[in-house]
């Protein structure tokens, strides 16, 4: 199998060195790996690092670099799909790290009859410090991030609704097309929803693993959660079927908090007290569980404060997204996104590598 290993990047000069080293060390035959880099108009030297990688002889079948004129993530991934010519297309983020057997284990599991495979994708932290390990603990926690199964190492083969750093047989992309460029943080949810609707299963395999760098500052983590929540709200109007109930947990918490505070302003404090006590119980239990499962740091005492900040940011983001739906729908009314999905279908079919 020829594998197209794809990565997109925008101003990721400081992040890509580790991933480039990982790609160079893959144990799958390099003459069967096509590397595809998409540079989304970087200005920090990311493109130069891509060129340096290309000009170093690692023995790959090909190294392709495409300059993409938009920062839109879905647009860049579509450019990668239209460029790739392999039998298998693997998506890897610039903020990722992959083990030496990453490509080979994906190919092995596809050869077992699967069409889309992936594995656990736990978070890691770069430039390790006590504070960054604390943020990592919050991000890794079910309470602080998500119950999505792919966020943790898989223990057994399991079919899921979505995967991170997944590997797709070319025929899957040729049938469902590319990413919806109208969407921001949820383009992969909608993409995987269409894959499931087409009858394909997404297999999370215990022998596949990759890693994602978590945000290294609380400000960036809060901004990320707000953005994620906002796109959940907007996506309700575009593809509600691609969202799960757990996406709305922070939204419901913030709504309940607003309602209870409103009642408290009129002298009815009981509901607010009950809500805060229940939340505090979950907050405390999950903070303690982080202390038992992680490399304990002094700043872990701040986890009970970090969790509500992340939840409120996400919930407020969802509220803002829902409010903005009419304006957003008007904005994308004449968008070419749907046509671009079809363009990817045609390009993938045409770019099939001949034996």
H and E order: EHEHEHEEHEEHEEHHEEHHHHH
CATH architecture of the largest domain: Alpha-Beta Complex
Task: Assign the structural class, choosing from mainly alpha, mainly beta, alpha/beta, alpha+beta, or little secondary structure.
Answer: alpha/beta
Describe the largest sheet: 8 strands, mixed
What value does the Rg take, in angstroms? 21 Å
Whole-number total of structural domains: 2
- Beta percentage is 5-15%
> Which CATH first-tier class of the largest domain would you pick?
Alpha Beta
Distance between the termini: 10 Å
Strands of the biggest beta sheet: in what spatial order?
Answer: 3-2-1-4-9-6-10-8
> Whole-number average pLDDT?
90
The helix fraction, in percent, is: 40-55%
Count of helical segments? 12
In CATH terms, the superfamily of the largest domain is Spore Coat Polysaccharide Biosynthesis Protein SpsA, Chain A
Low-pLDDT residue spans = none
CATH fold assignment of the largest domain: Spore Coat Polysaccharide Biosynthesis Protein SpsA, Chain A
Strand element count: 11
Shape category: globular
Q: Could you walk me through the main structural features you see in this protein, from its secondary elements to its overall organization?
A:
The protein is α/β, with parallel strands linked by helices and 355 residues long. It has two domains: 3-215 and 337-350, Spore Coat Polysaccharide Biosynthesis Protein SpsA, Chain A (Alpha-Beta Complex), CATH 3.90.550; 221-331, no CATH class. Helix content is 48%, strand content 14%. It has an eight-stranded mixed sheet, sandwiched between helices. Strands 5-11-7 form a three-stranded mixed sheet. Helix 2 (46-55) links the parallel strand 2 (33-39) and strand 3 (62-67). Helix 8 (218-235) crosses helix 11, helix 9 runs antiparallel to helix 10 (270-293) and helix 9 crosses helix 11 (303-331). The protein is globular.
